[in-house]
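Table S2 (continued). Query chain:
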Amino acid sequence: MIEAIIFDMDGVLIDSEPFWVQAEMEVLSTVGVDLTPELCTHTTGLRIEATVRYWYERIPWAEKSRERVALEIQERVAELIRGHAHPCDGVDRIIALASQHRIPMGLCSSSPYVIVRQVVEQLELRDNLSVVYSTEDEPFGKPHPGGYMTTAARLEVPCVRCLVFEDSLNGAISAKAAGMKVIAVPQGGQRMSTCFDFCDAKISSLADFNEDALRRFWSVG
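Corresponding output:
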């Protein structure tokens, strides 16, 4: 049975994906890479350095280093989060539900710690999360399973006994590759896509995850 819950952050706990899209479009436009929100979905779930590398390989630039571009995107996202961030629907409910049944919870994000820590503090989740982890500490980001494997190890729970909530395809592949159960929470146009059919369940938001859904994965008294 499932012994722990692990959340992705962006798009699952906090509606920050629009901030990443805005920041990527603004900063990359300064080096001649003109993106649209649709094009930004090509890199959803990747670490920022992987996102910048993805566009550099397709539209090389010389105005700034890739490291500088990545830093500027992070700084802009942090600025947007400070002014406009709010939790996704159902976050408080699922945290309360897991806490009620003493289910340990962790976070595994592709975002750098500077953003992860800010979000955890802003949503007041520090006391609820036993592990807060960023793939910034991993040699490879999602869809590589390393981040989720490390998070499970720090929770001291086998990967096969972890239940993951993910909104991105790269993240869902990462968790599945680690041997975990995955509930997809796809956003926007991806909600009708069949690309998440390999997951164990698909919901519109965390608000759809209730006691009955929990009992499908968890042995509760």
